[in-house]
Amino acid sequence: MNEKPEHFIVDGKRLDGRRVDELRSIKIEIGTLDRADGSCYLEWGNNKILAAVYGPRELHPRHRQKMTRSVVQFRYNMASFSVDERIRPGPSRRSIEISKVSREAFEPVVFTKFFPKTSIDVFVEVLQAGAGTRTAGINAASLALADAGIPMRGLVSACAVGKVDGELVLDLMKEEDNYGEADMPVVMTAGGQITLLQMDGHLTTEEFYRALELAKTGCDKVYELQRQALIKKYSEEYTAEIEDEYIEDAAPEGDADE
Ligand code: UDP
Q1: Who has the most CB within 10 Å: 7, 35, 56, 172?
Q2: Which residues are CB-neighbours of 205 under 8 A, at least 6 positions away?
Q3: Residue 88 reports pLDDT greater than 50
Q4: pLDDT class for 254, splitting at 50, 70, 90?
Q5: How many structural domains is the chain composed of?
Q6: What residue numbers bound the domain in which 93 lies?
Q7: How far apart are the CA of 109 and the centre of ligand 1, in A?
Q8: Mean pLDDT confidence for 82-104
Q9: What is the pLDDT of residue 246?
């Protein structure tokens, strides 16, 4: 584990050179996996995350089916090689908790009533962890659900706010997460409706409201990147489809058999 640094902020800059309200760099690729109905690979700072969505599909065992809606299942898993100190494969208290809160973060936005008796299965695999894996996983899952064509009120976007050296900072890195005074992951819709808020550490009431504002700016930036990634993927696909149709239409009669 890294040593606790003496100072987290020097001359307005954090350990990795960011300002207090700056995000780590984010890279998004949608539709990475051929066999999933929807998927997304996301890098956020040192995090490398893969999200896959399957469904809506018939839920087994049948006694778990709901007559009036689909059941959203969410599995967050950290690969044993994703962190410095190898972790035991399989579920842990932490991964069960993260799976539960992540599933709940999607409950207000997924139109589950459209698909009775089915399940929508979301898998988040953390390939490399570097603080904020739950928020990164939720951002990737949000895009994988959209990629799978699951009807939703909108995307959700996630970002953490924390406190180090007595100052609020956006999007914690590893040292800030491990040794900071507070860590508050937040998930929001584009309209600012909070679907998940957790807090570890201490903030005053005034700090809490400021932290929420800062989280909103982070979620807005993430939302914009998610939106751009979807537009890129689907405009490219749409253009390719139109071109194919154009070529088919333009082909002279009889060419189809050749
Ligand atoms: N971490 C680790 N080993 C573990 C769990 C977590 O090294 O078994 C690291 C990992 O980098 C993770 C960070 O600690 O991103 C913070 O973990 P936390 O439980 O706060 O969740 P996260 O911030 O990833 O959502």
Answers
A1: 172
A2: none
A3: yes
A4: low
A5: 1
A6: 25-250
A7: 26
A8: 97
A9: 78
